[in-house]
Amino acid sequence: MTAPESLEADLRAVERQLGRPARGVAEVAHRCPCGEPDVLRTEPRLPDGTPFPTTYYATCPRLTGAISTLETEGVMKEMSSRLAEDPELRAAYEQAHEHYLARRGELGEVPEISGVSAGGMPTRVKCLHVLVAHSLAAGPGVNPLGDEALEMLSDWWVPTSCAALHAAEDAAEDAAEDAAEDAADAAGRTAP
């Protein structure tokens, strides 16, 4: 598969995941172990001109569902409390904030969101989705609270690979389209 074909396949996968086309995609920032994209790196300004501070955007429904479960269990409140009490954690989280801003700055400057990262960084925890997406994209050791949340998640890609399910869905859709075309061709022919 060539790079444009690969990007097109990734964008189709993300559209399936989100139920809509992705906006402002700079690149796939991380792939699920099943092979599908699960985190996008997005432009800081969307195509319609809207400033968009969420550089790392989790797209996999299984991943986002697992993160949402953590949020409902009060993990963000506990992490925010620890930030207020632990100067080492606070310093590491500040560094994660700076990393986030630097990586977004590589894509362009948007004055309306200058200095604003996402997920509540650097002073609180507002969105675990952003922190986990940042950890997946940047790798371990960059965002301490994203790393912690990631460790709390079960293997969201198990028991069935999303990529395998989507390949089967695509094959069935292609077969149905081929059958419809064959039927249309047969109906258009005249008997001798």
Automatic annotation (TrEMBL):
What spans are recorded as compositionally biased (Acidic residues)?
172-184
Taxonomic superkingdom:
Bacteria
Which parts of the sequence are annotated with region: Disordered?
Answer: 172-192
Which one Pfam family would you cite for this protein?
DUF501
The name this protein goes by in its record: DUF501 domain-containing protein
Its source organism is Intrasporangium calvum
